[in-house]
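job 3f2a | input accepted
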Amino acid sequence: MSHVLAPRLSPPARDPAWLGRLFWLGAAVVVLWPMLVATEFRPWIFLERDNLKVTGQFLASFWPPAHDAEFLLMVAREAWRTVAIATAGMTLAFVVAVPLTLLSTRVLSVSALSGRMAAAPALLRQAVRLLLIVLRSVPELVWALVFVRVVGLGPTAGVLAIALTYGGMLGKVYGEILESGEGHATQTLLRNGSSRLQAFFYGLLPQNAAELTSYTVYRWECAIRSSVVLGFVGAGGLGQQLDNSMKMFNGGEVLTMLAVFVLLVALADRVSAGLRKALG
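job 3f2a | predicted structure (280 res):
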C-alpha cells in the first residue's frame, strides 16, 4: 500500500496577521491621542524630584495607624452605617425599579401580542424608559449633593442618592434580562387571559430569577463602594469620617479607615460571590 507523502511546510518567517494588527494599533493611537491631550495626561510628572518628595512626606504621615479604642469603636460604627446606607438605598432602588421594569418590558404588553404595540402603551413604555435614562444618567454623587441641601447632612441623603441612580440602573438591566429570555410561555399566558403580573410571576420570573438576583447582589456590592464616596459630600458613613481626617491631615486615622474600607469591600465581595455561586 503506497503512501503519498505531503510536502513539509516550513513555518512562516513572520506573523501573517502583522499588517492588520499594526493597522488597528495605529488606529487606536490616532483615536486615543487627542483624548490624552484633552485630559492633560502626563504621568511622568510623578517622577519629578519635588513631586516625589511631597509623595514621600504624604505617605510617611500615614504611619503609625490610629488604633486607640475610642477611634476604632467609631470606625466600626461608621462602617456598619456605610453598609446600612448601601442596603437601604438598594432596597429603595429595587422598589423603584420593579414597577418601572414591568411598565417598560415589551414582552408583558398585551397590545404587542398582535405584533405591533398600540400607540398609548408604546408612548408609556418610551416615557418610562426615558425616566430610567434620567435616573441612571445623573451620578449618585450629584443626587447626594442635591439631597444634602434638601434634607441636610447625614445618611438620608446617601440612601436617597443610591436609590435613584441604582433604581435607574436596575430598571434598565432588569428589562434587558427579561426581554432577552424566552417569551413564549409569557405570551401564551397573556393570550389565555392571565394578567400581566401573573404572566410575570409564572412565565418570565422563573426562567430569569437567578440572573436577576445575581445582578441585584452585584449592585449591592457596588453600592457599598458608592456609599463611601458619598460620605465626602456629607452623606454620612465611613466616607464622611475619612474626609474629616484628610482635612485635618491625620494620616494615621486615614490609614486605619482605608484598611477597614478595604476589608469591608473584600467581605462584601465574598458575600456577593457566594450568593451568586449559590444561585448559579
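job 3f2a | The chain has a mean pLDDT of 82.
job 3f2a | closed
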